[in-house]
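Quarterly update from the structural biology core.
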Amino acid sequence: YHGKIERSWERIFDLQWTEEALVHPRERKSIQACIWELRWEQVKRADQFIAR
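Predicted structure, tokenized:
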């Protein structure tokens, strides 16, 4: 069961996956997630969000 759940996430994090009717082109894709913990050494980039 655990493996099935992990495999279902693979498509979410695969920015190369395309299905024209379902997803944006690669250059418009992004990933948002909620996680329990993120260590500073795991951060690769941070962008400031400014609401319109």
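The helical segments are 2-12.
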